[in-house]
Amino acid sequence: MTDPAQDEFFMRRAITLARQAWGRTHPNPLVGAVIVEGGRVVAEGFHAQDGGPHAERAALAALGRAPRPDATLYVTLEPCSTHGRTGACCDAIRAAGIRRVVVGATDPNPAHAGRGLEVLRAAGVDVTGGVLAAECADLNLIFNHWIVSGAPLLAAKVAITLDGKIACRSGESKWITGEAARADVHAWRRYFPGIAVGAMTVLKDNPRLTARTADGGTWCPLRFVFDGLLRTAASPHLPDVYTDDQRERTIVVTTQHGGMGYVRKLRDLGVQVWVLETGAQRVDFADFRRRCAGEKITGVYFEGGSQLLSALLRARQLDYLFAYRAPLLFADDKAKTMFAGLRPERVDQAVRLTDLRHEIFGDDALMRGRVGYPEKILIDETVFSLR
């Protein structure tokens, strides 16, 4: 007889294992696996990197012997049933003689969802699905979006006061949130393949756009700078992301209006430049998304500023939002607001987050979720159908 509490206990261990490869498996998912015999963990494994063994195979290899008849395999994601670079995990499970498998999330690919469970059941394996499914699926925000849409997940981070402000009227904003919340931001920076900011943020703050890792080191993702007119390249003092020893991981996203002289200047420095043709002076986010898909960049974490994030929202290209809220009130209508440009006339025309997750970091609260757009929304006096 199965014990739901025990299943959740061991699934949480599998989730912890999956997180050990945080940010290192793209475009593959984070997956953890645990083999339990007699109520005790006897082997563990996780998918460490793209092209490496899947979590189930890593756990079976760690066991190093035939499992006992009472063995149960816990895995955070439905075992694959198709042959890729490492072979189908369903085949490995059957060959090992595992008689019970407990699964967290199902495969997000509509073509494969549930198929692995069916294959195992047809082979006589006792399968329990959906254990901590939401927590397991949350491990793979980027993978799930990529596998369903074939496009990168475009997410944004904001740090706001209780009245929705990101800076005083003077522009002062350090620090609205506390250190615990900022540490969580660095964890998400490590998770996403790329970080993006606008030209004004680069000129004002000269950010490094790197992530502090759990071991005290530093990791550099792809660093996107959105600069339709290449103002950052015209600055007499070039920003650090153009001159540091990681500058080859900086990608300036611009338009043909920026001038080829500045494009050559940046490329001569070793900085990558994407020139996206457009009739306007702003980068088209749909074109940026397509370019990322073509480059197999599965997710980008936008950190500001206000103009960039507002444009992303107005273009209906923002997929996910991380909103850190601090227990502060500016109560100043001239203090700076993160988002602008929408004009809903009714509450049901507002943008709403779905699939919400809530977390507390010290005195600050994080609300994060998928961005859901209403059927119709008023933007600059024009109603656009979003269907």
What can you see in these coordinates?
The strands form 5 sheets. The protein has a 9-stranded mixed β-sheet. A 5-stranded mixed β-sheet has the order 2-1-3-4-5, with helices on both faces. The protein is built from 12 helices and 20 strands. The longest helix is centred in the N-terminal third of the chain and has 15 residues, at 4-18. The chain has 387 residues and is of the alpha/beta class.
Radius of gyration over C-alpha positions, nearest whole angstrom? 23 Å
Tally of alpha and pi helices: 12
End-to-end distance = 48 Å
Approximate strand percentage: 25-35%
Helix residue percentage: 25-40%
State the low-pLDDT regions, or none: 382-387
Biggest sheet strand line-up:
13-12-11-8-14-6-15-18-17
Largest sheet: 9 strands, mixed
Instruction: Please identify the structural class as seen in this structure.
Output: alpha/beta
Average pLDDT works out at 92
Q: Judging from the principal axes of the Cα atoms, what is the shape?
A: globular
Tell me how many strands there are.
20
Distinctive features:
globular, alpha/beta, nine-stranded mixed sheet, 387 residues, 20 strands, disordered C terminus, five-stranded mixed sheet
Quick structural gist:
By secondary structure, the protein is α/β, with parallel strands linked by helices. It has twelve helices and 20 strands.
Question: What layout of secondary structure does this protein have?
Answer:
Elements (H helix, E strand, L loop, with lengths): L3 H15 L13 E6 L2 E7 L8 H9 L8 E6 L11 H8 L3 E6 L9 H8 L3 E3 L4 H6 L2 H9 L3 E8 L4 E3 L11 H13 L2 E5 H7 L5 E2 L5 E2 L2 E5 L4 H4 L15 E5 L5 H10 L2 E4 L9 H10 L4 E4 L3 H9 L5 E6 L10 E2 L14 E10 L2 E9 L3 E4 L2 E4 L2
Parallel strand pairs: 3-4, 4-5, 6-14, 6-15, 8-11, 8-14, 11-12, 12-13
Antiparallel strand pairs: 1-2, 1-3, 7-16, 9-10, 15-18, 17-18, 19-20
